[in-house]
Amino acid sequence: MNRIVVPGDLLADAPISIENTLIYDNKTYSAILGMYDDEKKTLIPLEGTWNPRRGETVIGIIDEARLSSYSVDLNSPFKGMLIARFVSSRLQIGSVVEAKVKELDETKTVMLMYAKKLYGGKIIDIPPAKVPRVIGRGNTMIQQITEGTNSSIIVGMNGRIWIKGGDVALATEAILRIVEEAHTEGLTERIAEMLKQNKKVV
Predict the structure, then answer these.
(1) Beta strands, E only, 53-189
(2) What is the tally of structural domains in the chain?
(3) Are residues 92 and 130 in the same domain?
(4) Which of 28, 54, 77, 139 is 20 to 30 A away from residue 131, measured at CA?
(5) 14 and 70: one domain?
(6) Are 56 and 39 in contact (CB under 8 A)?
(7) Per-residue pLDDT reduced to its tens digit, 70-119
(8) How far is the C-alpha of 109 from the C-alpha of 36, rounded, in Å?
(9) Residues 152-165: tens digit of each pLDDT
């Protein structure tokens, strides 16, 4: 069963190793506002900024092009950096890229790798803490949006989402509804019904 928890709420009467928790007197407490699943012992943040981790997918926008590198806007306090010689196609200011996090260096710059230029499409920005709800457990939520709209969707862990093809407007509406109702139960079923009712007949 999922329940909303705030900092200081008791999660378990035993110590559990979960991110964003505190252990005191052999009991586990939440350190954040989040959604806790008592069965699966998982805690999903409902607020907060993105903390880069190696291997995560991000969507960025080139905001500065130098001779040997590109500066990348990641919709976060962290600036991204791409080394030009590792990028297969020439990028310009405004180019949208999908990339992986390589590391966070000592200057708090996110070094990126495996960059791929994305052409066309639409970008929406959401709070990074809501990304897990948009993706869903086992990718179930994003898969049903993709199938229900026939859109190509790439979700960046930095809270930036790229949508192209199919019913982009419906895909956008579904994602924004998830963000708005992330703290509620039965959301997967409501999104499925929404997609079913609004799906265009091709």
Answers:
(1) 57-65, 69-73, 79-83, 96-104, 109-118, 122-125, 152-155, 160-164
(2) 3
(3) no
(4) 28
(5) no
(6) no
(7) 999 998 888 899 999 888 888 999 999 999 999 988 888 999 999 999 99
(8) 32
(9) 999 999 999 999 99
